[in-house]
Amino acid sequence: MPNLIVKLYSVFFKYQQKHLLQTLSLSSLTDQKPTNSFGVSSRPHESIAASNPSFTDGVATKDIHVDPISSLSLRIFLPDTAITSPLPSTHDYGGYLPTPGTFHRKLPVMLQFHGGGFVSGSNESVGNDAFCRRIAKLCDVIVVAVGYRLAPETKYPGAFEDGFKVLNWLAKQANLAACGRLDSQSHIFDSFGASMVEPWLAAHGDPSRCVLLGVSSGANIADYLARRAVEAGKLLDPVKVVAQVLMFPFFIGSTPTHSEVKLANSYFYDKAMCKLAWKLFLPEEQFSLDHPAANPLTAGGQPPLKHMPPTLTIVAEHDFMRDRAISYSEELRKVNVDAPVLDYKDTVHEFATLDVLLHTPQARVCAEDVTIWVKKYISLKGHEFSY
Questions:
Q1: Shortest CA distance to 273 belongs to which of 343, 321, 222?
Q2: Which of 220, 23, 210 is nearest to 106 (CA)?
Q3: Can you give the residue ranges of the Alpha/beta hydrolase fold-3 domain (predicted)?
Q4: How many CB atoms lie within 10 A of CB 31?
C-alpha cells in the first residue's frame, strides 16, 4: 500500500482537483462564448518554476512561443553534456548561446507532454520542470516540454493539434538549421526581423532521433502523435520518431476493465474525476468514453498498430487506468512492436512525475528504467558532432 504521506497528499490533491473540475464544468455551462482559440496553457493555482538559460545543476532552460495565434509554448531543457569542455561563458543576455562555426555535440530530441487530465498542469510547473531536468540529464537528450492548450477553453482536438504543430515545427527548425549551415543563419528572418532558427536546437538537436514521452493525458497526446508520424511518413523529414514512452496513460472506455471496477476510487485520479475531465475536453456532440482520443483500441481509420514505434508503458499498482494501458501494450506486442510494460508496486497515478513524489525511491527507479529502455533507440547513429 502507498505510505501515509502519499495517502494524505492524495486527499488534498483530489479535493483541489475536484473543485477545479467542478468550477470549470460550471463555467463552461454558463459561458455562452465560443471556444477560445488562443486558449490557456496553465492555471493560476499552478506553482511555476522560472526558466534559466544558464546551466544550473547541469541543465539550462528557456521558454519560447512558436505560434502567434495561440498560447502554445515550449520549454527547452539542454543538458550540459551537449557542451564540449570547457563550458563557454554566458553571453550578454545572461544565458548560453552556441558559438557559430565550432563543433557542437548533437543530442536526441524528446518531446514531453505533461499530465493534468487535459484541464490542468503546465510545462512550466515545478513538478514538470524537475521531472524534465531529471530526464534530460539521465537520458542525455534535449527535452522539449510542450505547453499545449487546456480544456475547456480549448476543446478537442486543440491539444492534439498543438502536439502535431510542435512536431512540424521541429522539422522546420531542422531544415532551417541546414539552410543556415549552407549559407548563414543570420540571413533567415521572420516578419519581426528576429531569427527563426532556435539556436540550441540548431546547434545540438538531432531530430532523426526523436522520442515522444507523455504523462497521463500527455500520454494520449504522445500516442496520437506517434500515429500521425506514421501517417505523415517522409513529410516530417528529417524528424524520425524512434520510440515513445506512455506513463500512466489517461485511457478509458465504455466497458469497464477489472481495475476500473476494483480501483474506481483510487488515489489522486478516480474514475468519476476522469469522466468529468473527458466531458470538459471533448465537444458535447462527440462525448464518448470510446472516443479514439480516450480509447486507443477503438476501431477506426487509424494506421495499423504494426507500424507504431517501440512503446514503453509505465503503470502503477493503485491506478484504476492501469488495465487498459496494459491491454494496449499487449495489442502492440501481438503485431511484434517492442512494447514492454513496467508495473510499479505500491505506487499511484503519476507517482514518478508529481512534485511531492519526485524524490521517492520509486520515482527515481522509474526514471532510471525509462532511461535504460530509451537509450536502446537513441544510440548514436552517424556523426556525433556538426558545425
A1: 321
A2: 210
A3: 110-352
A4: 11
Which residue of the set 216, 217, 259, 266 is catalytic? Answer: 216
The rounded distance, in Å, linking the Cα atoms of 22 and 339 is 36
Residues 6+ apart with CB under 8 A from 68: none
Tell me, yes or no, if the pTM score tops 0.85: yes
Selecting among 104, 291, 318, 349, the annotated active-site residue is 349
User: Is residue 349 annotated as part of the catalytic site, yes or no?
Assistant: yes
Question: pLDDT tier at 11 (50, 70, 90 boundaries)?
Answer: confident
Cα separation, 344 vs 329, in Å, equals 16
**CB of 362 closer than 8 Å to CB of 333:** no
The pLDDT of residue 383 is: 43
Which residue matches cell numbers 553571453?
91
Identify the pLDDT of residue 275: 94
Q: CA-CA distances (angstroms) from residue 103 to 21, 86, 106, 255, 379?
A: 50, 13, 9, 55, 20
Give the helix ranges, DSSP H, for 194-321. Answer: 199-204, 217-232, 258-262, 271-281
Q: Round to whole Å and give the CA distance between 133 and 89.
A: 21
Retrieve residue 237's grid coordinates. 523529414
The pLDDT of residue 265 is 87
Question: Mind listing the pLDDT tens digit for each residue in 310-319?
Answer: 999 999 999 9
Tallying the residues shown for the chain, one arrives at 387
Question: 3-class SS at 147?
Answer: strand
Give the single-character DSSP code of 364. H
State pLDDT tens for residues 161-213: 999 999 999 999 999 888 866 444 444 444 343 457 899 999 999 999 999 99
SS3 361: helix
* Single-letter amino acid, residue 203: A
Report angle CA 252, 373, 253 to the nearest 5 degrees. Answer: 5
Closest of 152, 206, 216 to residue 174, by C-alpha: 206
Is 369 annotated as catalytic?
no
Task: Tell me how far apart the alpha carbons of residues 289 and 295 are, in angstroms, rounded to a whole number.
Answer: 7
211 within 8 A of 374, measured Cβ to Cβ:
yes
The active-site residue, picked from 162, 223, 270, 319, is 319
Q: Which residues pair with 144 in a beta bridge?
A: 76, 111
The b-or-e profile of 202-212 (16+ CB within 10 A means b, else e) is: bbbbbbbbbbb
Q: Are 25 and 279 in contact (CB under 8 A)?
A: yes
* Cα–Cα distance for residue pair 187/384, rounded to 1 Å: 26
